Amino acid sequence: MRIDLHTHSTASDGTDTPAELVRNAAAAGLDVVALTDHDTSRGYAVAVAALPAGLTLVTGAELSCRLDGVGLHMLAYLFDPDEPELLSERELVRDDRVPRAQGMVTKLQDLGVPVTWEQVARIAGDGSVGRPHVAEALVELGVVGSVSDAFTPDWLADGGRAYVGKHELDPFDAIRLVKAAGGVTVFAHPAAAKRGQVVPESAIADLAAAGLDGIETDHMDHEPATRARLRGLAADLGLLVTGSSDYHGSRKTCVLGEFTTDPEVYGEITRRATGAFPVPGAGGTTA
Fold first, then answer.
1. pLDDT at residue 188 in the model
2. Terminal alpha carbon distance of the chain
3. Do 120 and 112 meet the contact criterion of CB atoms below 8 Å apart?
């Protein structure tokens, strides 16, 4: 089995619609794919309706969190998307995205960049607007060469010249809320230092003690030595280890199935979840 547990669609900051994403996942030879858009489950229904035969969909989300001033992302799998407390927190994050992005546009304009809110809104379309959409605007304007080049202190990285904060969950609260909604939590790319400051490994131990289920070890932003170190840490803490592409369509260079999760780990995730269940494909055709 080939299992990719971290992907994004146009419901947040990917470039594939949810229907295109599941069709592309099947074409890439995946058996299981997780849809983990940022702080939203809006893409679920379309993805399920379009799900090709032979592909299983895991519903999820990537939750925006912050610990001691450091941003981090928490992958949540197979939770009840209608559980009120977790839904309320996700809506708070989502609703804060527009004023945040508008604030980044204003800061960029103050820096002499001719970006406009209309341009960013066009790029975001119906998705939950975020930094990648602002970054793509900078690419369109020729300010930077790629989306990843915009995530530097000069521009949009945490604490960067055009950075603006948003409502984010405490990761301990995120673990509690996801568990209460019947879900499973995995710390996404915990050592991706190229993205900015990361939390210390002592914090991962604290999260594990609070009920964290796993860490995403195999990821494009982790060097081989980092992956090996994280696997050792996971073994010491009794955490599951996952591998995923963090696919965003054409917005990033990663490809579906670039990294995958062991079937036994996937099985354990599904065994622990009670809020929702993986959806087997039935040959959907929705556009």
1. 98
2. 26
3. no
Give the single-character DSSP code of 203.
H
**Cα–Cα distance between 232 and 222 in angstroms, integer?**
14
Nearest one of 111, 101, 163 to 137, comparing CA atoms: 101
Tens digits of residue pLDDT in 192-238: 987 778 999 999 999 999 999 999 999 999 999 999 999 999 999 99
Q: Kindly report the pTM of this predicted structure.
A: 0.89
Distance CA(242)–CA(261), nearest Å, equals 5
Which residue, among 84, 23, 5, has the nearest Cα to 278 in the 3D structure?
5
Task: Give the per-residue pLDDT at 282.
Answer: 77
Q: Is the separation of the CB atoms in 145 and 135 below 8 Å?
A: no
- In DSSP terms, 247 is beta-bridged to 7
Q: How many beta carbons lie within 10 A of that of residue 90, not counting itself? A: 22
Point out the residues of the chain with pLDDT beneath 70. 284-287
What would the two tokens of residue 215 be? 């860490």
Return the amino acid letter for 31.
D
All residues at 6 or more sequence positions from 194 whose CB lies less than 8 Å from its CB, including other chains:
221
